[in-house]
Amino acid sequence: MKNYKTFKYFLFLNIIFFLIPYASTHSLEDAINSKDRSVKNVKRDQYRNPYETLSFFEIQQDMKVVELSPGGGWYTEILANYIHAPGMLIAAHFDKNSERDFYVRMRNSFENKINQNPMYKNVSIVDLSSKLAEAETVDAVLTFRNLHNWIGPQIDIIFSNAHMALKKGGILGVVEHRANPGTSLEEMKRTGYVTEEYAIKIAKKHGFTLISKSEINANPKDTKDYARGVWTLPPVLRLKEDDKQKYIAIGESDRMTLLFKKI
Shortest CA distance to 196 belongs to which of 182, 208, 216? Predict the structure, then answer.
């Protein structure tokens, strides 16, 4: 009887030990509502719709996910809270040895943020121009409001590396400021708005299949005709106090939300 009780005790300890890694896991809703998020970032939820967007992209917490060019880490904050072992998050940030001082400062700032908070323990950082991950090891690649920055040879490199890193059936999720049809490449680069046609063409060029579109992040109030481009709107508000309330009332940009897969 004594041996049986000892066996039960150790069995109980083993079960508890096994469950510990999962005790702190969050549902997507919990991750978005977490107190670990900054108040400044939470205020942008009304424009960026993270629950609807990540659900549309079919992101699960046990996935291996690459976030391309996370900037200050707005989505990283949510994804790091949500994704847990055996999943992991790879942040493909500006190249560490970039010749542009701004990129280096942004990368260093992001690394400091990641290293100082245990919430990011399941996040690794790689260079944006790298292969991102070993071939066919990633479940999803996500990019939020970045395509306009990559127009030219860089976008081909990034999309090619994303396709190589993804498993068959892997997801490519794209959110981008949406230009009016017929907008030229030069105007896209100048204004920050990209046509759906261009985004789809680039993805298809590198082997992705468009699965679905969503209007989750649409904003019909965005007229897209600002002299200072998309940065006229929140959160940048490039004109500062000039017509500030007008642009705050418009909100953030009209955005396409596209789901591709590696078939």
Answer: 182
Predicted TM-score (pTM) of the model is 0.90
Any residues with CB less than 8 A from the CB of 44 and at least 6 apart, and which? 74, 235, 252
Q: Are 178 and 253 in contact (CB under 8 A)?
A: yes
Burial class (CB in 10 A: 0-12, 13-18, 19+), 30: exposed
Domains of the chain: 28-219 (3.40.50.150)
CA dihedral 111, 217, 49, 27 (to 10 degrees): -90
Q: Label residue 186 exposed, middle or buried (CB < 10 Å: 0-12, 13-18, 19+).
A: exposed
Task: Read off the pLDDT of residues 215-240 as tens digits, 9 standing for 90 and up.
Answer: 999 999 999 999 999 999 999 999 99
| Whole-angstrom distance, CA of residue 33 vs CA of residue 116 | 21
- The Cα–Cα gap between 135 and 119 comes to 27
Q: How far is CA 189 from the centre of its chain?
A: 21
